[in-house]
Amino acid sequence: MKPILSLLFLLITPYLQAQVTNVYEFLDLSPSARITALGGLQIAVVDKDLGLAAQNPALYNAQMHNQLLASHSLYLADIGHGYVGYARQIDTTHHITVGGGLNYVSYGNFDQTDEFGNITGSFKAGEYALQLGGAWQHNNLSLGASLKFILSSLESYNSFGIATDLGATYHLPKQNYTFSLVLRNIGGQVTTYANTREPLPFDILLGASHRFTHLPFRISIMAHDLTRWNIRYPRNNNNIIVLGADTTSKEKTYFVDNLFQHLNFNAELYLGKALCLRAGYNHQRKQAMALNSFRTMGGFSFGGGIRIKRIAIDYGRAIYHPSSSDNHFSFMFSF
Q1: Distance CA 199, CA 267 (A)
Q2: Element (H, E) at 283
Q3: pLDDT at 235
Q4: pLDDT on residue 236
Q5: Which of 223, 301, 317, 335 is deepest in the core (most CB within 10 A)?
Q6: Rounded to whole angstroms, how far apart are CA atoms 126 and 21?
Q7: What gap in Å lies between CA 254 and CA 287, rounded to an integer?
Q8: How far apart are CA 133 and CA 99, in angstroms?
Q9: 202, 184 contact by CB (below 8 A)
Q10: Please, what are the domains in the chain?
Q11: pLDDT block averages, 10 residues each, the chain of length 335
């Protein structure tokens, strides 16, 4: 066990610092409409939804056996994003379930111009990640891992990378509590765009959820960006205080605001076995997209889903800004 922990520490140590920009940021996009409706992050629910395993491989389980998921998002600025996945239980004795999926994003067509602004042609841009993973379950504990092969093509610039996700989930079915830990996007670029190596969007995630015994209601809280403390959008944080004839500058810490920017909150209301309503709140998104002139609904998300026998259809809407939102649709089928 000690050699494994030592290796894990060596892998994540380079990421435990503030990072300004990352490559392959599309890996953090929501893989399903349900997760979009829940604020973009859900790693602590154990059920038959294959989209959950895309964010936490420890959530692969026997309920996902022979399930197919197809999801597409009408993202911001006419960007198309989606995820297609499949899962299968391969060992009933040792409770091993495997799966995989393709995460894709198309940025559309762009005009190619010269230095004077004259159009000389056009080009496309897109990114793709093939994900293969699985989970092993023993009693209440589930451990999972997934491997990602990443391809990014931006005009004539291309990059290839490899990353892995590691997850652990502890589920208490009688008490209806679930706790999860995920190390996401451990890896790097194999080939770079222009001989400049950039870090992947590595993250450490914690999640907890509880479904009430006598109420058709589930609440969850997710913690993200745990490799760094200050993730606030840069704004004017200085407050000038005049004391007598002296003028001093005191920088606000914004402790509470920074704390809540690490947290996502979401809830699900079950109306019978077929219908579910969902809502979420992402404080980091709200603050990053905030307007000084008036309050907006940025950071809030909502949606719902319906399941009839082997078919499930979900819709999620995430509000980023008064001018744009993300509309996400998912279709699941169990063979």
Answers
A1: 33
A2: helix 283-288
A3: 60
A4: 55
A5: 301
A6: 18
A7: 12
A8: 6
A9: yes
A10: 2-334 (2.40.160.40)
A11: 41 45 93 97 96 97 96 90 97 94 94 89 94 96 98 94 98 96 97 93 97 95 94 61 44 81 97 95 90 85 95 96 90 94
Tokens 């399903």, residue?
32
At 18 the pLDDT is 44
Instruction: State residue 20's pLDDT score.
Output: 55
* CA-based nearest residue to 307, from 328, 327, 279, 332: 332
Cα separation, 35 vs 316, in Å, equals 8
Tokens of 222: 């997710």
Residue 259: the pLDDT is: 93
Instruction: Tell me the torsion sign for CA atoms 183, 185, 188, 194.
Output: negative
Give the separation between CA 235 and CA 153, rounded to whole angstroms. Answer: 33
- Rounded-to-integer distance, Cα 109 and Cα 4, Å: 45
Q: Which residue do the tokens 């909150």 mark?
A: 265
Residue type, 12: I
Tokens for 87? 């899962």
Residue 251's pLDDT is what?
Answer: 53
Longest C-alpha distance within the chain, in Å? 78
**Rounded distance between C-alpha atoms, residue 188 and residue 198, angstroms:** 8
Amino acid at 243: L
